[in-house]
Structures are given as structure tokens and as C-alpha cells.
DUF4190 domain-containing protein (Streptomyces bobili), 88 residues
Amino acid sequence: MQLTAPAGSRTGVRDTDGMAVASFILGLLGLLVLNVVLGPIAIVLATVALVRGTKRRGRAALGLTLGIADLVVLAAFMQADSTVSWSF
């Protein structure tokens, strides 16, 4: 019985490709809702995917850019509203 993956298969690449796609989707969603949460998550996932050598470098770079844009949008809204939190 073999409990580990065979030496010839690389499961890590598939995981990093998933991280790249997830960072892109979360960064895109973060522009619309919950940018204070989804932006940093997109940044972390994109950075990890790029460091681990994903095949989807463009998607990870877009996720990183969108995650940063989420935080910029948040800062712009906070500056325009002159507050740190939203009023409901």
C-alpha cells in the first residue's frame, strides 16, 4: 500500500494553479463586496502561487493586482467618507 504520491507526479503544480485562479476570482469579487477581507486573501494566494512556480503566472499576477486594487478602493472610500468603517 502506497500512502504518498508517486515520484513522477507533481501534485503541487496543480495546487498552485488552483491558487492562481482562486486569487483572480477573489480579487475580482473583492472589487464588488468585502474588499477588506477578499483583497488580502487574493494577495496572499497570488504571492504563494507565484513563489511556488505556477503555470498560470498571468492569472496569479492579475489576482495580485486585483487584490491590491481592492485595498486601494477601500482606502479611497474611507478617505471620501472620512471614516474607518461603514455606517449602516
About this structure: The helical segments are 11-30, 35-52, 57-81. The mean pLDDT is 83. The CA atoms of residues 20 and 59 lie 6 Å apart. The two ends are 58 Å apart (CA to CA).
